[in-house]
Amino acid sequence: MPLLPDGSFAPASSRPRVLVVGGGAAGLVIARDLARAGVAVTILEASDRVGGQLASARVDGLEVDTAAESFATRNGTVAALAAELGLGEDLVRPLERPAWVIGAGGRAHPLPAASVLGIPGDPLAHDVASAIGRLRTWRAALDRLSPLRPPEAYRSLGDLVRRRMGAGVLTELVAPVVRGVYSTTPDELPLALASPGLPDALRANRSLGAAVLTLRAASAAGSQVAGLRGGVHRLATALAMDAAAHGARIILGARVTGVDATGVTLADGEVLEGRVVIAAASAAGPAPRTRAITVAVAVLDAPDLDAAPRGTGALITSGAPGITARALTHSSAKWAWVADSLPTGRHLVRLSYDELPDDPEATVAADLRAVTGARVGPIRDLHVRTWTRTLQAAPAPPGGIAVGEAAGTTGLAGIVAAARARAQRIIGEADSTDAKAARSGGTEG
């Protein structure tokens, strides 16, 4: 019998079986919370591993993340989960170095310090003027004078920034950040997805800049992102182990071909009954909008990079001359644990691309030289993988529950928070069913 949070047992037949389709971050989080509450749960994962984009590879002997490598610190959601999983002491902040932006003309400049998604809190700040020029800062400063409309009046993040601060801020600061972080354009990004607190901050302030400063003041001291010593992929392993320890069943190679209100059908024709949680966007049908991202992780000897000429990395404006990548993360300049794992003069870098380069090794070396201005030695080892991100998922079938990218949620912090909230609703419904069964004398047998 399943154990309830108060220590009592519920009749086994009073709780519906939950089938989680997809063993990525969202699926693992919701399955783990359900299992710990005594809900019978099965994860059906089509591939040969769980974790989804919490993934790793061994590059020149070092186990490193090959997709997500950090998470937003807002609300402490991911940090709290890591602590529950026994990983709290391995939470780390990036080293205190700025990120840079490479403009359309190829000029490099640090991302303004008091900004959110590249939107400056003070358009007249010196680092903003250095980045985009005095004329564009004056245009951006008009944000302080013109009336701010309700957030619903702006079609997208791009529409908001363009109308409030002008095209210069949008193209030179916001667009490269959104391209690097969300793999899309500001005009395709709704406000709530861009920054969950932005709509409320806009309602509470009289300008976009003031809303940005409100968001930054509400953030925890220090960096707005964090990671895990040894890699964020460790979360997937810990979640799977904890879920299994509390009774969750994890089935790999289980390709789901049909989903309805009563259960799922597998590729081999087997039908499993239960309440369905869709944690893989493909399970609901072909996604209307997706985007492929190729991540190249390289280890190389380059003493010129010891000085971290582009800080923790660079976000690259589309059309920057001589550069194919859309973003660079200088991992050994961003994370102390990575730097400590490598000898002096050796570096770990991550470059992301909108499509797979014809010659990844030559492209990575050329882009690294162009972005950093450093001399780059031969690449010792290179791992390249292409990921597909769902920008808009197909609707969940009637009776189905969607989480993660299947529900339009992006970013590890948002995915974890939404999955845990959904798990609590399911647990609450199950507890209510148990209470009714107990009042009526339970089930027969």
Written overview of the protein:
This protein has three domains: 12-55 and 230-286 and 393-439, FAD/NAD(P)-binding domain (3-Layer(bba) Sandwich); 114-220, protoporphyrinogen ix oxidase, domain 3, CATH 1.10.3110; 289-391, Protoporphyrinogen oxidase, mitochondrial, domain 2 (Polyamine Oxidase, Chain A, domain 2, Alpha-Beta Complex). It is built from 14 helices and 22 strands. It has helices at residues 25-36, 77-84, 126-132, 134-141, 157-165, 167-182, 191-194, 198-204, 208-218, 234-245, 331-334, 336-340, 360-372, 412-439, and strands at 18-21, 41-45, 56-59, 62-65, 71-72, 91-92, 99-102, 108-110, 115-116, 119-120, 225-228, 249-252, 256-260, 263-266, 271-273, 275-278, 289-301, 313-316, 327-329, 346-353, 379-392, 401-402. α3 (126-132) crosses α4. It starts with 17 loop residues before the first strand and ends in a 6-residue tail after the last helix.
Name of the top-level CATH class of the largest domain: Alpha Beta
Count the helices. How many? Answer: 14
Q: Please give the order of strands in the largest beta sheet.
A: 8-7-18-19-20-17-21
Computed Rg: 23 Å
Task: Please state the structural category.
Answer: alpha+beta
Beta-strand content estimate: 15-25%
Major sheet details: 7 strands, mixed
SSE blueprint and pairings:
Elements: E1 18-21, H1 25-36, E2 41-45, E3 56-59, E4 62-65, E5 71-72, H2 77-84, E6 91-92, E7 99-102, E8 108-110, E9 115-116, E10 119-120, H3 126-132, H4 134-141, H5 157-165, H6 167-182, H7 191-194, H8 198-204, H9 208-218, E11 225-228, H10 234-245, E12 249-252, E13 256-260, E14 263-266, E15 271-273, E16 275-278, E17 289-301, E18 313-316, E19 327-329, H11 331-334, H12 336-340, E20 346-353, H13 360-372, E21 379-392, E22 401-402, H14 412-439
Parallel strand pairs: 1-2, 1-16, 2-12, 7-18, 16-22
Antiparallel strand pairs: 3-4, 5-11, 6-11, 7-8, 9-10, 13-14, 14-15, 17-20, 17-21, 18-19, 19-20
Helix pairs in contact: 1-10, 1-14, 3-4, 5-6, 8-9
